[in-house]
Amino acid sequence: MTATNLPELTVQPSATLGKQLQLFVLPIATTALLFGFALVDSRVVSPGNLINILQQTSYLSVFAVAQTIVLITRGLDLALGPTVSMVSVGAALAMTQFLDPSTTSISILLVGLLIGVGLGWLVGLFNGFVVAILRVNPFIATLGSYNIALGIATTLSGGRPVQNVPDVFTNVFYSGSFLGVPAAILFAVVIWVGLHLMLNRTIFGRSLYLIGTNVRAASVAGIPTRRVLMLAYLLCSSLSAIGALMLTARTGSGEPNLGGSLSLQALAAALVGGVSLTGGTGSVGAALLGSVFVTILSNGMNLVQLNGNIQLIVLGTIVIFGVTLDQYRTRHK
User: Fold this and answer.
1) How far apart are CA 159 and CA 282, in angstroms?
2) Are 210 and 237 in contact (CB under 8 A)?
3) Rounded to the nearest 5 degrees, what angle is found at the Cα of 163, between the Cα atoms of 161 and 166?
4) CA distances from 332 to 19, 83, 229, 327 (A)
5) Whole-number Å distance between alpha carbons of 182 and 196
6) Per-residue H/E/C for 166-224
7) Residue 188 φ/ψ region, left for φ over 0, alpha for ψ in the -120 to 50 degree band, beta for the rest
8) Quick one: how far is CA 314 from the chain centroid?
9) Which of 149, 208, 224, 333 has a CB 3.0–4.6 Å from the CB of 86, allowing a cystine?
10) Residue 143: helix, strand or coil by DSSP?
11) How far apart are CA 268 and CA 288, in angstroms?
12) CA–CA separation, 246 vs 251, rounded Å?
């Protein structure tokens, strides 16, 4: 049996219950959450804040769909947050410390992009090699790379922000717009559409689902499982790197703590949206819906001035809720 027979062997991206959650329950819960916060502070539903929520969602959704790629394969990327920090610091240093003041705008953009994405590739290749080739549990493998990436980010920056990121970089990745649509949203939409097509219209995308459902069946079907897993982690870290560049442009500096709680937020968004920890289930739409929910939750907690430590407790609770919901869906398939 060859990989050309794959479409007959793949599973649907989402189970029936998961689809019902995404189509009905989660949007209703998200709307209720938004208006619930509005009762406490009317600024939550102001036009300015709604635009802010949309922009924040565009950032988080990039990381959520990145996490979704490896979750579909029954994997996990705990190193997503530190990867963002390392990419931010590395790209900022390259653009501010190692380029001549007379360097052209195009060269600055290319250097920042290549260094940033290149660092993401390195993390992805490392994670993919350890998980797919050495067969180390994804939790342990990415926990190790979590500390490695965080240590590199802190060492390169000396624990301090890398200031004076070139204006041209900020203009392209943050303050720029096209037909009135902010650059961050445009980048996010391109990523959403591209990944949706990849997951649903390509053999690679279908291979991810089959590996997550039954890796032995995938191997019997002629899928090079190790190579596909390597590419999954490479793609995850590459998307994280692009998101890191977007956030770096927003802050205007390379931040060693930029990743912060992003690993937790991205995982929470994916799980609440309906992506399964047991593999074989998930979609771009699920990650996007979850991102909207988590963004509104974070935005609302900030506006009502909820203590930052309490916010982490809430996010952790959301992750536990998402895992519990996933277990319920799995038992009732």
Assistant:
1) 37
2) no
3) 140
4) 13, 36, 28, 9
5) 21
6) CHHHHHHHHHCEECCEEHHHHHHHHHHHHHHHHHHHCHHHHHHHHHHHCHHHHHHCCCC
7) alpha
8) 19
9) 149
10) helix
11) 12
12) 9
- Say which amino acid occupies 202: T
127: part of which helix (H) or strand (E)? helix 105-128
* Nearest by Cα to 5 from 223, 199, 327, 156: 223
For 15, left (φ over 0), alpha (ψ -120 to 50), or beta?
A: beta
d(CA 54, CA 292): 8
> Which secondary-structure segment (H or E) carries 90?
helix 80-97
Please answer whether residues 252 and 168 qualify as being in contact, where contact means their C-beta atoms are separated by less than 8 angstroms. no
| DSSP one-letter string for 8-72 | GTPPPSS-HHHHHIIIIIHHHHHHHHHHHHHHH-GGGGSHHHHHHHHHHHHHHHHHHHHHHHHHH
Tell me which DSSP letter residue 78 carries: T
- 8, two tokens: 């007959």
- Tokens 């590459």 belong to which residue? 238
Q: Distance between CA atoms of 225 and 219, rounded to whole angstroms? A: 6
pLDDT tens digits along 80-127: 999 999 999 999 999 888 766 667 778 888 888 999 999 999 999 999
How many residues in the chain?
A: 333
Residues 6+ apart with CB under 8 A from 268: 290, 294, 315, 318, 319, 322
pLDDT in tens, 33-88: 898 988 888 888 888 899 899 999 999 999 999 999 999 999 999 999 999 999 99
